[in-house]
Design a protein that fits this description.
Helix content: over 70%
Number of helices: 4
Largest sheet: none
Number of domains: 2
Number of strands: 0
Order of helices and strands: HHHH
Shape: globular
Radius of gyration: 17 Å
Distance between the termini: 37 Å
Amino acid sequence: MAGLFGASGFVVHSVFDGLAIGLGFRVDSALGLLVAVAVIGHDFSDGLNTVSYMVTHRQPAGRLRVLLVADALAPILGALFASLVPVPDAIFPVAIGFFSGLFIYVASNTLLPRARDLAPVTGCR
């Protein structure tokens, strides 16, 4: 079950990527295009992460394919949702603050300590 829940987390993450695209286009078409290019490049690794997570947890190939397709479609659905559902202007600054803070929290409490722990293995310091 751990593989299924973890891979589902990648799908939810991809929905938020799509929301970022849709909201970017609502602010400005140039911003939307910039966010779309960044998210598309980033989502290739999300697909790889989904598959590797499922394989690591010995999930069946059929379930792996379903979650990979879901991960690929999730940004499209998120972008459509953000494009079609009205969002009050007051939501944008709150959302940007929330997601920026979340990103900084994850980077400082999870990613940086892990990178530091790996530094002796890779020879970097």
